[in-house]
Amino acid sequence: MKKRRRWWVLFGLTALCSVAGLFTTTHSGDFSLSETLNGRDYANIAWMITATIFVLMMTPGLAFFYGGMVRAKNVISTMLQSFIVMGVVSVIWVVFGFSLAFGNDIGGFIGNPLDFFMLNNVGCENMNGFDESTIGLAVTSIPLALFALFQMKFAIITPSLITGSFAERVKFSGYVVFMSLWTIFVYCPLAHWTWHPDGFLCQMHVHDFAGGIVVHAASGVAALVGAIFLGKRKNEEGKAANIPFVLLGAALLWLGWFGFNGGSSLAADGTAISAFLNTNTAAATAMITWVFLDCILGRRPSAMGAAIGAVLGLVAITPSAGWVTVGQSMFIAFVTTLICNTAVTYKAKKHLFDDALDVFPTHGLGGIVGTILTGIFTYSYFFPNAESAEISHLKFFLNHVLAVVIVFGYTFIVSFALYWLSNKMVHLRVSAKSERIGLDLSQHHEAYGIEALENHTEIMEEANDK
Question: Is residue 55 within 8 Å of 157, Cβ to Cβ?
Answer without folding.
Answer: yes
